[in-house]
Amino acid sequence: MNKLARKHEVDIRDWWRGAVIYQIYPRSFADSNGDGVGDLAGITARLDHVASLGVDAIWLSPFFTSPMRDFGYDIADFCDVDPIFGTLADFDALVARAHALGLKVLIDQVYSHSSDEHCWFKESRSSRDNPRADWYVWADPKADGSPPTNWQSVFGGPAWTWDARRGQYYLHNFLREQPDLNFHNPQVQDATLATAKFWLDRGVDGFRLDALNFSMHDPQLRDNPPAPDTGKPRTRSFDFQQHLYNQSHADIPAFLERIRALTDSYGGRFTVAEVGGPNPEAEMHAFTTGEHRLNSAYSFAFLYADRLTPALVRDAAAGWPAEPGMGWPSWAFENHDAPRAVSRWVGAAHRAAFARMKMLLLLALRGNAILFQGEELGLTQVEIGFADLQDPEAIANWPLTLSRDGVRTPLPWQSGAPALGFTTGKPWLPVGADHAALAVDRQEADAESLLNLTRRLIALRHSSPALMAGTIIIREAGEALLVFERQAPGQTLVCAFNLGAQPLAMPDHLRGRRVIEAVNGATADLLPPFAALVAE
């Protein structure tokens, strides 16, 4: 292979390193047909907005055939589009338009479980000796008829449901309508990889792998030990256990090597794992180490944090040193499962300033930056009344809820339009009461808006080797002051952030540098409340 060809190969393979990825939740992005639910044609019609941000890729949350018990994360056909979102032709049109705009397309893959309406599960539950009898996790009851283990589901209650057809229990780490696939069975791995190939053949550029650490269980069916009481409220039975045996089996990385081999055979594809749990770093590293597992992983370190502190950032960055064999991190401050960061991390009086500082921080970290739709607008969390709740987790745990509905509300496109331009019908969730002032059309017209700042900051990132792929060295992590350096050959940048509401003097050794980007009045000498800068 000549030098030019080798460089071309590396460029294709590594397009994702330092990428900015924009997550789209299809139900809430844009509705093209007036039924109140967003769809693929709506996304295609609005892709110019996403491309104008300068992001590298979009990530689509599930749009597959589903009874929507968990709004698409319960999949009844891994290789088709649910009619509420459109058709395979609509998906192909979306991919074509995205690629024409220079956007890569990533889609969710949910390998942990399927819907109980999937044909695989219908066959599996029909008897103990059918061809797919061992495609799901089945177990006999204990002698007293109780479930095989004490495992609890994420959404509350036992993780086992009795099925009279087989006279056994089946495992579901989430809803009872989401039975767990048995990935210890090579046939299940083969069938799942075939569904991945289906989408790769349609032109997708990679996958975000949902709930990946739930994909394999302990075959010995040992009980989980109790979790120590940390003093934090425990709203779900799931919170009372250490999850040693219902998830996170040591054989998962070997399956990931099969996924990577498949995606690498297509060239230039990207894989990122979602890894949940209180201490996910070890699994994230195991899933991404070397050149034969996944490209990247992200956790809930920021997504469920109740405060943004310098220590939180320091510890997150320290978990991903630039060492041989170490994977590449991805970071998200918001997503479809986590409440809006501006509502979690700061009071209403400071939200506008905080959103600007937060955006610069996300785009200055070493790793990929994942933006959730509306984050570029500074959208707030919407309070959803019980009568309007759609999320099964929120309904089950009302009023002690993760508020997933409150982050999934429709995107505001036009400040003066019905449903803020999301739909001509009644939206599936109510729009935010304060979202009209944050609508796309309002911010387009304001040169100082968060939307336009986001475009500028993404352009800065792309123009900077240090911000794209350089190392990170934390220099200060105090009560409110966060300072780190990003270094690449020929470039060293200092990034300074005031995460508090009181002004801070710039440390003496950092004063006088040439500022190349600043938000909220930051200067080389002073950081006003929630101010931040990047300097040479």
TrEMBL record:
Gene3D superfamilies: Glycosidases (3.20.20.80), Golgi alpha-mannosidase II (2.60.40.1180), Oligo-1,6-glucosidase, Domain 2 (3.90.400.10)
InterPro entries hit by this protein: GH (IPR017853), GH13_cat_dom (IPR006047), Glyco_hydro_b (IPR013780), O16G_dom_2 (IPR045857)
Superkingdom classification of source: Bacteria
GO molecular function: hydrolase activity
Domain Glycosyl hydrolase family 13 catalytic: start-end pairs: 23-408
SMART domains, per database record: Aamy
CDD domains xrefs: AmyAc_OligoGlu (cd11330)
Keywords: Hydrolase
Family (UniProt): Belongs to the glycosyl hydrolase 13 family.
Protein name per its UniProtKB record: Alpha-amylase family glycosyl hydrolase
Organism of derivation: Sphingomonas agrestis
